[in-house]
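Pasting as-is:
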Amino acid sequence: MALEHHDLAHEFPEFKERIHELKMNDAHFQKLFGQYDEATTKIEALEKEESPVADETMEDLKKQRLALKDDLYAMLKG
Protein backbone atom coordinates (compact mmCIF):
# COMPACT_ATOMS: atom_id res chain seq x y z
CA MET A 1 0.00 0.00 0.00
CA ALA A 2 1.36 3.41 -0.98
CA LEU A 3 1.82 5.85 1.85
CA GLU A 4 0.51 9.38 1.56
CA HIS A 5 2.98 12.11 2.44
CA HIS A 6 1.61 14.70 4.87
CA ASP A 7 4.18 17.47 4.91
CA LEU A 8 2.65 20.93 5.16
CA ALA A 9 3.50 21.94 1.58
CA HIS A 10 1.60 18.90 0.27
CA GLU A 11 -1.31 19.53 2.62
CA PHE A 12 -1.65 23.22 1.71
CA PRO A 13 0.00 23.81 -1.69
CA GLU A 14 -1.88 27.10 -2.05
CA PHE A 15 0.06 28.43 0.98
CA LYS A 16 3.55 27.36 -0.13
CA GLU A 17 4.91 30.92 -0.19
CA ARG A 18 3.17 31.82 3.09
CA ILE A 19 4.63 28.71 4.75
CA HIS A 20 8.12 29.77 3.70
CA GLU A 21 7.54 33.35 4.86
CA LEU A 22 6.31 32.26 8.29
CA LYS A 23 9.11 29.72 8.70
CA MET A 24 11.61 32.52 8.12
CA ASN A 25 9.94 35.22 10.24
CA ASP A 26 7.72 33.73 12.96
CA ALA A 27 9.28 31.82 15.85
CA HIS A 28 5.95 30.38 17.02
CA PHE A 29 5.15 29.10 13.53
CA GLN A 30 8.66 27.62 13.31
CA LYS A 31 8.11 25.75 16.59
CA LEU A 32 4.71 24.37 15.56
CA PHE A 33 6.02 23.52 12.10
CA GLY A 34 8.87 21.55 13.67
CA GLN A 35 6.48 19.65 15.93
CA TYR A 36 4.18 18.91 12.98
CA ASP A 37 7.10 17.70 10.89
CA GLU A 38 8.36 15.51 13.75
CA ALA A 39 4.92 13.94 14.27
CA THR A 40 4.58 13.31 10.53
CA THR A 41 8.01 11.67 10.39
CA LYS A 42 7.14 9.38 13.34
CA ILE A 43 3.79 8.39 11.84
CA GLU A 44 5.28 7.66 8.42
CA ALA A 45 8.10 5.61 9.97
CA LEU A 46 5.62 3.56 12.00
CA GLU A 47 3.44 2.99 8.93
CA LYS A 48 6.46 1.68 6.98
CA GLU A 49 7.63 -0.69 9.71
CA GLU A 50 6.66 -4.33 9.72
CA SER A 51 6.43 -4.49 13.51
CA PRO A 52 3.06 -3.84 15.10
CA VAL A 53 2.28 -0.61 16.91
CA ALA A 54 -0.57 -0.13 19.33
CA ASP A 55 -3.62 1.46 17.75
CA GLU A 56 -3.77 3.94 20.62
CA THR A 57 -0.20 5.06 19.96
CA MET A 58 -0.89 5.68 16.29
CA GLU A 59 -4.19 7.38 17.06
CA ASP A 60 -2.54 9.69 19.62
CA LEU A 61 0.17 10.68 17.15
CA LYS A 62 -2.40 11.38 14.43
CA LYS A 63 -4.49 13.47 16.83
CA GLN A 64 -1.41 15.45 17.81
CA ARG A 65 -0.55 16.03 14.15
CA LEU A 66 -4.11 17.09 13.36
CA ALA A 67 -4.17 19.62 16.23
CA LEU A 68 -0.86 21.07 15.02
CA LYS A 69 -2.17 21.17 11.45
CA ASP A 70 -5.25 23.09 12.63
CA ASP A 71 -3.08 25.61 14.47
CA LEU A 72 -0.74 26.02 11.52
CA TYR A 73 -3.65 26.45 9.11
CA ALA A 74 -5.13 29.18 11.28
CA MET A 75 -1.80 30.99 11.18
CA LEU A 76 -1.55 30.57 7.40
CA LYS A 77 -5.01 32.05 6.89
CA GLY A 78 -4.39 34.91 9.33
